[in-house]
Amino acid sequence: MKYIKTSVENNVITLTITRPQALNALNTEVLSELSTAIREVGEHPDYRCLVIRGSGNRAFVAGADISEMVDYTPEQAFDFSMFGNRVFAQLEQLPIPTIAVVHGYALGGGMELAIACDIRIATPNARFALPETGLGIIPGFGGVFRLGRLIGEGRAKYMMYTGKTVGGEEAYRIGLVELLAQPEELEEMLDDTLKRILNNSQVAIDKLTNIFAYAHADASAADFLQEAEHFKACFAHPDQKERMQSFLDKQNAK
Ligand code: CO8
């Protein structure tokens, strides 16, 4: 794989999204590789935990790829959203615990990826935001529904309507991340969490992951379709093209 690097240690598999030149932004290729990697994780009998990280020291994932999305037709936007929704649902429904390790930017689809995992560990320099409304779109990878479950609907609406960035400490305070670690303590905290999970009964954890997958499966299918339909409609409006183009023009002028 070109964009997803894999490593395995003590029955724990780590997937590192590796597209540092674009702050690990998710284009179709990255998403396709992620889909394959997650499917393979689900089929492997020996893995007991999955860790997801972003390459480099600046970002977990800076969102879906804006340069790819800017010219999408509404139909392409619908397909991209449904595809992303399927990949993140695959992740959410894995039969093993999943942990996102977040440093730097976790924006838009990147934040949606982090909240599709079971547990999040972040450093104070983590930057979470859903900047989609500023780009004329909405979160399209299941985040509209998942975020409210995690931090409460009011806070979720605040983050989506305002696009405001939340740093690592605030993310910890509002329950967007479960663990906060100074950069030098991050690996130790991750190892400690993994050891605690691995020391417990695999049978019991397997039962829990099954219950959580069951709890969200029915609602998710209808929710994702609803989200993708509205996501599609954003691409039929000039706001989306103007706002994304304006972002890209500013990037080019740097
Ligand atoms: N897409 C494409 N390229 C990106 C993205 C992105 N989301 N984020 C960063 N990059 C690229 C930059 O264009 C730049 O590339 P280049 O060097 O070739 O110009 C490189 O990464 C480094 O970025 P910057 O030079 O901008 O670094 P700064 O430190 O100045 O800024 C920021 C970092 C603040 C992260 C800035 O890059 C930024 O604002 N990026 C966009 C963040 C964003 O808005 N993300 C949300 C996108 S929308 C989304 O995720 C929707 C999800 C739902 C999709 C549903 C299905 C379709």
List keywords for this structure.
254 residues; alpha/beta; 2-enoyl-CoA Hydratase, Chain A, domain 1; six-stranded mixed beta sheet; four-stranded mixed beta sheet; 10 helices; 53% helix; 16% strand; binds octanoyl-coenzyme A
Describe this structure in words.
With 254 residues, the chain is an alpha/beta fold. The protein has one domain (4-184): 2-enoyl-CoA Hydratase, Chain A, domain 1 (Alpha-Beta Complex). Helix content is 53%, strand content 16%. It has 10 helices and 10 strands. It has helices spanning 28-43, 66-69, 74-92, 109-116, 143-151, 153-162, 168-173, 186-199, 202-234, 238-253; strands spanning 4-9, 12-17, 49-54, 59-61, 98-102, 105-107, 119-122, 127-129, 166-167, 179-180. The strands form 2 sheets. It has a 6-stranded mixed beta sheet, sandwiched between helices. A 4-stranded mixed beta sheet has the order 4-6-8-9. Helix 3 (74-92) packs antiparallel against helix 9 and helix 5 packs across helix 6 (153-162). The chain is globular. The two termini are 31 Å apart. The mean pLDDT is 96. Residues 22-23, 25, 62-67, 69, 77, 80-81, 84, 105, 107-109, 131-132, 135, 139-141, 231, 251 line the site of octanoyl-coenzyme A (CO8). The site of octanoyl-coenzyme A has 26 residues, from helix 2, helix 3 and strand 6.
Please give the largest β-sheet: 6 strands, mixed
Count of extended strands: 10
Q: How many structural units, i.e. domains?
A: 1
Percentage of residues assigned to helices = 40-55%
Distance between the termini: 31 Å
Strand content: 15-25%
Alpha plus pi helix count = 10
- List ligands, each type once: octanoyl-coenzyme A
CATH topology: 2-enoyl-CoA Hydratase, Chain A, domain 1
Which regions have little confidence, pLDDT < 50, spanning 5+ residues?
Answer: none
CATH top level label: Alpha Beta
